[in-house]
């Protein structure tokens, strides 16, 4: 209104909770959460509906991560040269569903051939708990055996012929889309 106080622009990140503001404050207090932590919990519950939060890491504990995926995992058993040597079995998730909790400074990376796959492993214990696969460079391949107990219900394993990588990936109907949210 003319002559009234000027309207203030909302602070970045501020939002009006309306009639839910008291409920929001009580929820934060009851669970001892910051506003950001409470918002993340709500967003995770909504965005990752039907998924569970798995946690895991390397053997020595220097590298820890969380990943949102089904409790029923679709794991690839690849026979390419490096997967055979490492016994690398993995399931694929979009990058948006993976979070490195600690250990970025304790990871090192090995690449070969096309250098698209980023084989990350712990500098201390040598365990590869996740990596960036060539088939899905915008996602992560997670080693199910590096997940903490209690969140996996079933594992279905699919063999993939990594010795003939280009042919196998071209013929596979879904592998390239597994890193899409």
List how many beta strands DSSP finds.
Answer: 10
Cα-atom radius of gyration: 21 Å
Q: Which stretches of 5+ consecutive residues score pLDDT under 50?
A: none
State the helix count: 4
Give the CATH topology of the largest domain.
Metal Binding Protein, Guanine Nucleotide Exchange Factor, Chain A
| SSE topology string | HHEEEHEEEEEEEH
Largest sheet: number of strands, sense, barrel closure: 5 strands, mixed
- What's the overall geometry? elongated
pLDDT averaged residue by residue: 88
How far from one another are the termini?
A: 46 Å
Neighbour order of strands in the largest sheet: 8-9-4-3-10
The CATH class of the largest domain, by name, is: Mainly Beta
**How much strand?**
25-35%
Helix content: 10-25%
Summed up, the domain count is 2
Give the helix/strand class: alpha+beta
**Which architecture of the largest domain does the CATH hierarchy give at level 2?**
Beta Complex
GO molecular function, one term: metal ion binding
InterPro entries: CENP-V-like, CENP-V/GFA, Mss4-like_sf
Protein name: CENPV protein
Organism: Glareola pratincola (Collared pratincole)
């Amino acid at each position: 209104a003319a002559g009234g106080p000027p309207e203030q622009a909302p602070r970045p990140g501020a939002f009006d909770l309306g009639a839910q503001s008291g409920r929001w404050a009580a929820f934060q207090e009851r669970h001892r959460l910051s506003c950001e932590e409470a918002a993340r919990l709500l967003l995770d519950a909504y965005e990752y509906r039907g998924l569970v939060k798995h946690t895991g890491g390397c053997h020595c504990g220097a590298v820890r991560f969380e990943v949102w995926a089904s409790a029923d995992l679709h794991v690839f058993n690849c026979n390419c040269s490096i997967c055979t040597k490492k016994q690398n079995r993995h399931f694929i998730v979009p990058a948006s569903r993976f979070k490195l909790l600690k250990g970025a400074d304790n990871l090192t990376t090995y690449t070969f051939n096309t250098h698209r796959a980023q084989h990350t492993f712990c500098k201390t214990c040598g365990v590869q708990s996740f990596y960036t696969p060539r088939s899905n460079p915008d996602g992560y391949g997670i080693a199910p055996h590096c997940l903490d107990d209690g969140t996996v219900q079933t594992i279905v394993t699919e063999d993939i012929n990594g010795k003939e990588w280009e042919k196998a990936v071209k013929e596979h109907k879904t592998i390239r889309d597994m890193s899409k949210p």
